[in-house]
Design goal:
This protein is α+β, with helices and mostly antiparallel strands and 275 residues long. The protein folds into 2 domains: 7-149, Sandwich (Jelly Rolls), CATH 2.60.120.280; 157-274, Arc Repressor Mutant, subunit A (Orthogonal Bundle). It contains 9 helices and 13 strands. The strands form 3 sheets. The protein has a 6-stranded antiparallel beta sheet with strand order 1-8-3-6-9-10, with helices on one face. It has a 5-stranded antiparallel beta sheet with strand order 2-7-4-5-11, covered by helices on one side. A hairpin with a 2-residue loop joins β12 and β13. The termini are far apart. InterPro entries: AraC-bd, Homeodomain-like_sf, HTH_AraC, RmlC-like_jellyroll, RmlC_Cupin_sf, Tscrpt_reg_AraC-type_HTH.
Length: 275
């Protein structure tokens, strides 16, 4: 089997000044770990198959099928892809489109996905007055209209929060209470609760549930069964896990991924999926 190279070495988006360029990567040919790096261009990561987890701006972001994570230019970030991941990257020159100045997950319409896929087959130095240039312009115009999704897990730069986040990322089935975690990081439960709200905007329970959702989306997208994911996350039953998933995303895991596979453009409104 040939040696897998880092995805960072596959393409340098900053060598071109085109407003948008795209590249496709199959992680069968690349290392799953993408080390921390940065580039001038902003980056939209789209998962065609499998999933990828990104770390940027003190948050962990999951990229399940039919969504994308936007990382502004100049922001350090790293990633880990599932073994079956096939991704499209869209690199955007600063100022070329009115995209967010912070990291965010975006719903991505089938139209955008097809345009990015088509642009990935064009050279990085495509003519500025040709078809690829027009395609890039329309793709960017469409992208700025896309709504945000909630596929992030805030981890904070606070050392006590990071200790808990690192531990739960390694062992997500850990059901220790907030009082038990407070004792481990030498704080009172009340102080930890205040710190959690200040640093992440979430209560401890909601914060841990968001981590479970991120992990569940990643594992389900990589082909894991609902039963295995429920067990990995420490749920007493499959039904308890499905209830959590449905409360968070408005549908069961099977319904959610069926919509994604069908290429339907869906987003969230009042905790319910809408088309």
């Amino acid at each position: 089997m040939p040696f897998a190279r880092s995805a960072v070495s596959a393409f340098d988006p900053d060598l071109t000044d085109r407003p948008a360029v795209a590249r496709q990567l199959d992680f069968v040919d690349h290392e799953a770990e993408v080390p921390m790096h940065t580039h001038r261009k902003g980056q939209l990561i789209l998962a065609l198959h499998g999933a990828v987890t990104c770390t940027a701006d003190n948050e962990i972001w999951i990229v399940p099928p039919s969504c994308g994570v936007w990382i502004p230019g100049g922001m350090p970030h790293s990633a880990r892809a599932t073994a079956n991941a096939r991704l499209n990257y869209l690199f955007v020159e600063p100022g070329a489109a009115g995209l967010p100045e912070d990291c965010c997950a975006l719903s991505v319409s089938p139209l955008i996905r097809e345009m990015v896929d088509r642009l990935a087959r064009e050279p990085a130095d495509y003519p500025t007055d040709g078809h690829a240039a027009r395609l890039a312009r329309v793709a960017l115009d469409e992208l700025v209209e896309m709504p945000r999704e909630r596929f992030n897990f805030p981890i904070s730069s606070n050392p006590k929060i990071r200790v808990i986040a690192d531990a739960l990322t390694v062992e997500p089935s850990d059901r220790s209470t907030s009082a038990e975690w407070a004792k481990r990081v030498a704080m009172s439960e009340r102080s930890l609760a205040r710190l959690m709200i200040r640093e992440t905007g979430l209560t401890f329970g909601r914060w841990r549930q968001q981590l479970h959702l991120v992990i569940a989306l990643r594992e389900l997208a990589s082909g894991a069964t609902v039963q295995n994911v429920a067990a990995e996350l420490g749920y007493d039953s499959v039904n308890a896990f499905i209830t959590m998933f449905k409360k968070a995303l408005g549908s069961t895991p099977a319904q959610y991924f069926a919509h994604r596979r069908a290429g339907k453009f869906i987003t969230m409104k009042n905790n319910r999926l809408i088309e």
